Amino acid sequence: MTAEPIAAHEPEQGCRWPVPPQDGYTVNDLFTLPDLPPHTELIDGSLVFVSPQRDFHSTMIDLLVTGLRGTVPETLKVRREMTVELDPRNGPEPDISLVRAEAVTRMEQTRFAAADVLLAVEVVSPDSESRDRDTKPRKYAAAGIPNFWLVEMTDANQHPVVRVYELDPLSKTYVLTGIHHDQLKIPVPYDIDVDISVKALKEL
Fold first, then answer.
1. Residue 72's pLDDT is what?
2. pTM: predicted TM-score of the whole model, two decimal places
């Protein structure tokens, strides 16, 4: 959902949407505008509000975060749902980010620069399919983030599927390197081995 001008929409109970500036919002606005809903993102200068998430979304993030943190080297940190500043008009919030340890500077930190992110992970939700599958990967690739995972639940048997992509530095686009159903075992951005089976998901 993208914010609309006040004149176009009057919510009930006296709440008023912020009026976008002529050239759209900037990433700095994400942290200064009052009363924005949690996990608001910025895409092309427009605010994007997050709808309530399915249990699969939350649990899959937990499964991957736990698995990644189990073997992550000291030079890297795993973070969930933190803003990544791609440019002044784009501040998406990957479900999971793998960042350089030196980029984590304080407990009050609210964002990371794209240059400090080695992996962005998006778990697809019904309300964000287009952004997760198309808009965000294109922007992550253009910003030079070297690795991207797209996580979905299959319709047939509700099984997690993780599609792994690596950045082609010449074309600045992602190339699919693997599709993982039960075990996510890959050598980049470090040696990763995570159980992503239905059984592992249901045990959380």
1. 97
2. 0.88
